[in-house]
Amino acid sequence: MNIAILxxxxxxxxxxxxxxxxxxxxxLKKSTITYIFVDxxxxxxxIDSEKINSKLFSSGEYKKSKQLTLKQGGFYGEGxxxxxxxxxxVLLNLIHGRDGExxxxxxxxxxxSIPFISPRLEASALSYNKxxxxxxxxxxxxxxxxxxHLSKNDTRTISMDYPVIVKPVRLxxxxxxxxxxxxxxxxxALDVAFEFDNDVIIEPFIEGVKEYNQAGCYTDGWxxxxxxxxxxxxxxxxxxxxxxxxxxxxxxxxxxxxVLTEKIRETFKKIYDPLFQGSIIRCDFFVSQGxxxxxxxxxxxxxxxxxxxxxxxxxxxxxxxxxxxxxSIGVDYTYIDSIQKAKGKA
Amino acid sequence: MNIAILxxxxxxxxxxxxxxxxxxxxxLKKSTITYIFVDxxxxxxxIDSEKINSKLFSSGEYKKSKQLTLKQGGFYGEGxxxxxxxxxxVLLNLIHGRDGExxxxxxxxxxxSIPFISPRLEASALSYNKxxxxxxxxxxxxxxxxxxHLSKNDTRTISMDYPVIVKPVRLxxxxxxxxxxxxxxxxxALDVAFEFDNDVIIEPFIEGVKEYNQAGCYTDGWxxxxxxxxxxxxxxxxxxxxxxxxxxxxxxxxxxxxVLTEKIRETFKKIYDPLFQGSIIRCDFFVSQGxxxxxxxxxxxxxxxxxxxxxxxxxxxxxxxxxxxxxSIGVDYTYIDSIQKAKGKA
Lengths: 346, 346
Description:
Two copies of one chain form a homodimer.
Chain A: E1 2-8, H1 14-27, E2 32-38, E3 44-47, H2 55-58, E4 66-71, E5 74-79, E6 82-85, E7 90-93, H3 104-111, E8 116-117, H4 121-128, H5 130-140, E9 148-151, E10 164-168, E11 178-180, H6 183-196, E12 199-204, E13 210-218, E14 222-228, H7 238-244, H8 258-272, E15 281-288, E16 291-298, H9 312-320, H10 334-342
Parallel strand pairs in A: 1-2, 1-7, 7-8
Antiparallel strand pairs in A: 2-3, 3-4, 4-5, 5-6, 9-12, 10-11, 10-12, 13-14, 13-15, 15-16
Helix pairs in contact in A: 4-5
């Protein structure tokens, strides 16, 4: 199978996406990879998969590659004998953060009829924004951590007890996130968060809360990963998460009982189906007093969380043949024809 | 000002969009119009604004026009001397229904850096889906009509009293909508609605409820239309709405007191700002026992509801110079450089 990997983008996680894409070379051993890079100006480039390395991008050398144009049905490059389509079976959207996770890439691929693996438009728009994720969870009967929402021009007061965690609503990879231990620190944390977004959510910071991650997708049946208990640190800062995105070796299952395992899995399924069909996502849960709370949906986990699966590559191939189909809409000009007739013009 | 009108699309409202676009010729008297048609296969065509008429599309004759390609910065056509950019100052998204109102066009225009008038990605994704509109309203403290939500595979039982109105969650222009007077009729109405969507919402059908429409936008200040009381009919069916989309003459203000006027206006502003910046929308409200309830957000009203405004064209020009700006994200390869250094490669 020839898998096109789309990466880069106009995103704070542009570099993370490059690392994530290069890592896939070690993960996808049985597939052919076609690399399509989106530079920070949002131009498309066909990158030689033999020569790909991170310096190619930081040095600007990628600009010697073939530039591509998006047209109906695929990506095209100009050659000696006219425009030629880039061949691949399915596109994997590996743009983290803006452009990739916010619904733009999903829109582009759907509009231009390119089969792709990633959350679709609505799933992206809802999961990219942490406030909308709360609405979604509520509508599905999935519990989340309590929260307050502040916009840039709102009065900076909150009613919950400290410590709290302040998060820009639209970013991943912990960018702009702070733990605030007392009221005196709130202002600075909000300044930081509002650097990146006009909206923030504030949640109680629960000391020692158990955290579990579940990744998975639906192909011809459920394919769920092991449940991981991430490393205990206050939270992963940008640099640590960055290193995390290049992981390619398997980790161990969390030591939890069957009842909790089942609860986490059922909650994952409730969130995934049908909204996230066509994608591999990771849900991060908190467990508090036996209750499973959704913390975050990671719509495009770093390197797709390959290290949580036994047969990641096989799953990707199965998913590629089980993508959701867009409803086809027939346009037949019935009304225009009848108006023309009424006017005596047809 | 040269205004590009984007219309058509792969949408049940493809024909409505054509009518809406042609109507703008009568409305925009001081502007130059550049027509860009999206056919049902989602190819772009530059349509001669002198020759535009509905038959051009129903006959397929539009295919003799110049085909366009979307690239960074604009639309391009191939000519004798290479690729040439189509010149315009701002693009008006007039694709009704899918592609236009669901966030795809907003994604495309944002990605390709084209200044455009229409709701942005998030605003589109939330307002295109009637269920998500409920979440949005709730988060803003705006009241809506009570509702129940059914997915295609759910048991077909509801708990509210009849009569009810059944609506597919993702369509405009009353397509697939039924009024159901008793339980015996529910099954058929659901069959109809599920023809068009996998999700429906069901609301009480309130006999004789007062309905008021408010359109508007924010430019260098609020520009709100008159409040219209739409014609009293059970509801507008597709054909009637279709004719409605070609309206270009002004209507009269609803006869309501200042208190209600103010309530409607404040509710409109609460919904619009900041999510809908850059667009002209119409909100349809119900008024029941002095309370203002949001019925629907119409993110791209037919012919942009021009007939509700005194100076529609002037407003459009002002809006074109007050479009929201995307946050600029600098990509500087700091992390990749530092990894290169750590590896001794730089």
